[in-house]
Structure formats: structure tokens, C-alpha cells
Design brief:
Blueprint lengths: L2 H5 L3 H4 L27 H8 L15 E6 L4 H10 L3 E5 L7 H13 L3 E5 L5 H9 L4 E4 L5 H11 L26 H9 L1 E6 L2 H5 L1 H4 L7 E4 L1 H8 L8 H16 L3 E5 L4 H9 L3 E6 H13 L8 H20 L2 H12 L9
Parallel strand pairs: 1-2, 1-8, 2-3, 3-4, 4-5, 5-6, 6-7, 7-8
């Protein structure tokens, strides 16, 4: 090598480290440093954001999509949930503060972490279904779908022709800004990537379940156990036999009809029963839910009031200081007295 080449590194070597070619990752099955719970990586993020069936794993086997809810609408927490390893993250609009500009940011954050963004819209109106898809939702959950007519309307708003009549647009995240080709292929890809769910929350919806599951273009049903418990007359009793039986029957009927089935419920008997019945989309925790418990526990670690022993020590320390002041002469004693009465403090803080 000449001295000239030795003193002038290659163009690749002059690039910042982040742009240089990285070594291939160790094989997941043989790498001893691989954690047991593998967070999402760029590779899994790419798979999550592609057209592959999100309900199948990399080997083509059916899988359960596990998720948590970001009720706070905090983009960092949404990304964190995906990076932890949850396959999907729920964005709340029906009961939450997010508008569509924020929902788009949340979708970007979730996909950056390798997850699949899901949005529960406020209701089944066209502009809610359409805009959730336009900003990047991969799963759209529409609350209070009680009839097959309502379910067909969700598909009408959320799928391109011939399944529905979703509005023509090639400039949004939901259609990859038009970079994935031209219509109709672009729209077919968008339809393939997105999933519409009808939320079952009333006895009327349960009675119409078989008809709802026959709606073409609907990916599945999603159980809302809170409102369903109210409709059943067992408000909030999510571990009651009545609601467990209804939920299992509904999930079984949906799966038997070739539809996916989901539920939002914290760990317990109902979640276990739903999984046993075949639920393959489950949200079972959330940021506000978990923090409200964790922070209450943390709060109790430090008492609000000083203990009796600490108060006694403070009084004793004051007496000792006064005694030391007297022993050091009249000047020190006078200074201590002025400090104790506050006469030496500025007027603003007396």
C-alpha cells in the first residue's frame, strides 16, 4: 500500500459509523446473547408493515396478536410498547383525547417500533373510518356495531371498489403516498394490508352475530366486555359465568365463520376463556391502567408525614444548637436568637 493510500482512507471509511455496512446479526436460534423475549427489530418492523397476513407468523402458522392500549396518546409510550414486543398497539379515540393528526404520529411511532397500529374510532361514520385508514391504521375497530347493515356500511367506507367505496386518494400514509404503484393495484394492496373489525357490545349485536360475520370484507368481530356486561345486566362483573359464556359462544361463532375474533380485557378468567375459544387479537393492558397501579404502590414507599422519631431528633438538634451558641459567647448567642426569630432575614422572606 502506498503512503498516499495509507493517509487517505476509503470513502466508506470516511462515512459516519451509522452509514457503514453493519455485520449480519447472529442466527436467532444459536445466538447465546439473544434475550428470551425478543424485542422487535428492523426486520420484524418490515414484516409488520408489509402485505403479509398479520395473523400468521413468519413460518405461516396462525398466531395471536398481543397488544396493549395507549390511552394517554403518548407517542413515546406507543413506540415503547411495540419495542417491548407487543405485536399490536391500540390507539383510543372513542374515549381518548387523540385527533387524527396525533393518531398519524402514533401510527408512525408504533410502526417504528415494529408494531401494528390499531385504532378504535369514535363511531362508524364515514369520515372516522376513512381518516383512520388514511393516517395509517392497519386495524380499525368500530364500536357499537349491532346489525349486519352497520357492518356492511363499515366495509363500504373502509374498502376500495369492488368491496366498498372508499374515497379515491393516492397521497396519504394509508396508501403509502402512492409509492406502491398505481390504482387499482395500489388500492388492492391497501385493502390487503388493513383489517376492519365490528365491535360487539350489546345483546342485539350478539343476536345478529351470525349475519354480521357473513359480511364480506369484514375481517372479524371484537368483543367489548364492559358494555356487553351492562347489556347482560351484570355491569362490571367480567368474571361472571353469564358473560364468559356469551363471549365464548360469540368468539366460537366468528371463528367458525372464518373470521378473526378479538377482545379487550385485563388478565383473568375472561381473557383465558376468550383465548380458549379461539380469540386471536387480544389487548390486555395499557399505559394508564398499569401506571395507576404502579404509581400507587410507589407512592406508599415514602410516608407523607415525618415519623415521631424524626420530629424528636429535629427538636433535640435545635436545643443542642442553642446550647452551643451560649457556650460560644454573647455574640454567638445573639446571632442565634436573631436567626431563630427571623429578624436577620430579608423582609420578603420573613
Amino acid at each position: 500500500m502506498s503512503s498516499s493510500s495509507a493517509n487517505h482512507p476509503s470513502a466508506a471509511a470516511r462515512l459516519p459509523a451509522v452509514f457503514r455496512e453493519l455485520p449480519a446479526p447472529a442466527d436467532a436460534d444459536t445466538d447465546p446473547q439473544r434475550p428470551l423475549s425478543q424485542p422487535h427489530t428492523a426486520a420484524t418492523a418490515s414484516a409488520a408493515n408489509g402485505t403479509a397476513d398479520i395473523f400468521l407468523d413468519n413460518a405461516g402458522r396462525p398466531r395471536v396478536l398481543r397488544g396493549v392500549c395507549v390511552y394517554s396518546a403518548a407517542p413515546r409510550l406507543a413506540e415503547l410498547a411495540a419495542r417491548v414486543g407487543f405485536e399490536t398497539v391500540w390507539i383510543e379515540m372513542e374515549h381518548g383525547p387523540a385527533d387524527y393528526a396525533l393518531v398519524e404520529t402514533l401510527c408512525v411511532s408504533i410502526e417504528a417500533g415494529g408494531g401494528i397500529p390499531a385504532v378504535r374510532v369514535p363511531d362508524g361514520q364515514r369520515h372516522h373510518v376513512l381518516r383512520a385508514l388514511e393516517v395509517g391504521a392497519r386495524i380499525v375497530i368500530v364500536p357499537m356495531v349491532n346489525t349486519p347493515e352497520q357492518a356492511r356500511q363499515v366495509v363500504e367506507f373502509g374498502k376500495f371498489p369492488p368491496l366498498g367505496s372508499r374515497g379515491y386518494n393516492v397521497r396519504s400514509r394509508g396508501v403509502e403516498y402512492g409509492l406502491g404503484g398505481r390504482p387499482p393495484a395500489l388500492f388492492a394492496r391497501a385493502d390487503e394490508r388493513t383489517h376492519l373489525f365490528a365491535q360487539i357490545e350489546t345483546l342485539e349485536a350478539v343476536a345478529n352475530l351470525h349475519e354480521i360475520c357473513r359480511v364480506e370484507g369484514l375481517s372479524g368481530i371484537f368483543i367489548g366486555p364492559g358494555d356487553l356486561s351492562a347489556s347482560l345486566g351484570v355491569v362490571g362483573r367480567l368474571d361472571s359465568e353469564a358473560i364468559i359464556q356469551v363471549v365464548q359462544d360469540a368468539i366460537g361463532a366468528a371463528r367458525g365463520a372464518g373470521k378473526h375474533a378479538g377482545i379487550l380485557v385485563t388478565p383473568g378468567r375472561l381473557l383465558d376463556a376468550a383465548l380458549e375459544a379461539g380469540a386471536d387479537l387480544v389487548y390486555y393492558g395499557g399505559d394508564v391502567t398499569e401506571l395507576s397501579v404502579a404509581w400507587q404502590s410507589l407512592l406508599q414507599r415514602v410516608p407523607a408525614l415525618a415519623s415521631a422519631g424524626a420530629a424528636t431528633r429535629q427538636v433535640a438538634d435545635g436545643h443542642d444548637a442553642a446550647a452551643n451558641g451560649d457556650a460560644q459567647g454573647p455574640a454567638a448567642s445573639a446571632a442565634f436568637s436573631q436567626l431563630a426569630t427571623g429578624s436577620t432575614l430579608p423582609k420578603a422572606v420573613r
